[in-house]
Amino acid sequence: MILYSxxxxxxxxxxxxxxxxxxxxxxxxxxxxxxxxxxxLIVNTASKCGYTPQYADLQEMHEKYGAxxxxxxxxxxxxxxxxxxxxxxIAQFCEKNFGVSFxxxxxxSVKGSDQHPLYQWLKSRTGKEPTWNFCKYLVLPDGTxxxxxxxxxxMDDEITKxx
Length: 163
Fold this sequence. Notes:
Elements (H helix, E strand, L loop, with lengths): L1 H11 L8 E3 L5 E3 L8 E6 L8 H12 L4 E6 L11 H12 L4 E2 L12 H10 L9 E4 L5 E4 L8 H4 L3
Parallel strand pairs: 3-4, 4-5
Antiparallel strand pairs: 1-2, 3-6, 6-7
């Protein structure tokens, strides 16, 4: 357990978001280095949440900003058990209901003792962690990281003015 905690701490201390590699929802390994020099909008998602319609907003944003912004969705079951499905079920739900074509990743934990190293890294840069589903981190190419709670929609000026 101590070794596991140390490994997680070391990963969280990575100097750059571009050092991460993670599994996409289809199992493919995604190297974040391919996103270098682009803003990233990282969102913890859930299929059975009052904020779930934000999937449509994220898809709209993906279509509007295209190659100038990378949207990364991370399903998580940390809040109210609102993401109980398997990766396959989540992918099907997103495609069927919202036509999601932005990059989705396998389900992870975004809070608590089993918090994924990516979210540890984001927390270490902002001092904030998700308080509910659909919290957002905007990582700018210069390394600046901004946190937005669930109530801030993806297309809000608060986010888009920084793009």
